[in-house]
Amino acid sequence: MTEERTNEGWQLRLKSCGGGRYLSAGFLAVWLCGWVVGEAFVLWILITGAVALLTGRPPEPGREPLDLGPALMVGVFLALWLTMWTIGGIAALAELMRLLWGEDRIAVSAGRLTVTWARGPFRNGRAFERDVIRGVALVGRQDHLALETSRKRVELSRLGTRAERIEGARALRAELRLSDAATSVAIPQAWEEVITPEGDRALVPNLAVRRTQARVASAIAMGLAAVTFLVAREAIGRPDLMVGAAVLFVFTMALAAGTLWLARGRWEWRIGHGRLTLRKRFGPNVRDVFEGRRLRLEISTDSDGDSSVILLALAEAAPSSTPATIQWRSLPPKHSRIVAQSAEDGSVRQLAAWLAQASGLELDDQTTPQARAVQLAELRAMLEGSGRLGRWAAKLVDRLEDRAKKAG
Question: Which of residues 243, 265, 287 is at a domain's end?
């Protein structure tokens, strides 16, 4: 981390560090070599097939001309595969650049904060006026450096060590003259507050993202519909294409239904005083599905050991007096609905804080160390009372807890 004051203003620099990044970078470099080969091979197949269909000539000497129906089905599949393959390759290349040549520059000058994300020769930046900045936060399990604005949270940097990001956040707050805690909570970028046609406040997924999804789904649906029409027309005289045409028709109808839902429908949380109502809206029609009277944050762990933070809305207004039960898999309690779930707990916690503030609902945070200690004690007591095998498992829990304390 480099902190300096120049003639242009104050500047903070965070760079990629750590020896382990070279191992990850080496793996990505090898994978990208295979990615280039796969990209070129599929592109060659698509171009050769397209030329063969347009000219009516065989794709290679000594072969028969391509049949329209099978060629289109194979082409659609390869085009979809190539799209996903290309997106994955771009993401891998960006991560490789971040690991080897990543640098984030945060500058404060003349009442404006400017952040520049440098990944090798590529640059991207944003600027924020001082009056929209509400705070500087450390989010997620790795304490990524983030900026709280009046509308959303923006990640500034995940580079450097954890200690450097903590020190950078302190220095940035001092430069911006911000308190350690933000005075107000912003809605996470993935969500948006709207006023419904009925005049109510409601929380919905980001509408701009949803419109983009609807446009992309619509374009794909129209392309797939055109391919389905051509294959179906060819299948009139080719019974062997009937199954392929039927499969394409089913996929086209499913994609069209999904596109219609993205364009005309949505789930929304109506915000009331002391209550939160889940509504299903489609066009002018709206239906209440569930009413929550309390919020809860929980940590869920799947069968692979991966954990995520869940924000729940519960129908009960007060905690239940029923003793807690230990389940093999973490399941939402009865009479509840999931509001948000993510492996990155920063956005879910931010949404929980904003929603509790906007609705006046009680927020029961079960992810704090104190709450986890209580849950562990309840688990230990239940195991010890279940027999010899349970007592052995309780001792194993104690050992794992001691190791966790020593490790961190």
Answer: 265
For residue 56, give the amino acid letter.
G
Cα–Cα dist 149/170, whole Å: 17
pLDDT in tens, 322-345: 444 444 444 566 788 999 988 766
C-alpha atoms less than 13 angstroms from C-alpha of 245 in its C-beta half-sphere: 16
Residue 114's region, left for phi above 0, alpha for psi from -120 to 50, else beta, is: beta
List, as one string, the DSSP characters of 247-281.
HHHHHHHHHHHHHHHHHHEEEEEEEETTEEEEEEE
d(CA 51, CA 105): 48
Name the domain count of the chain.
3
- DSSP class of 333: P
What pTM, to 2 d.p., does this model score? 0.62
pLDDT (tens digit per residue) in 360-407: 899 988 877 666 666 667 667 776 777 777 777 767 766 656 654 544
Query: Residue for token digits 């919020």?
Result: 295
In a domain, 385, yes or no: yes
Domain annotation covers residue 314: no
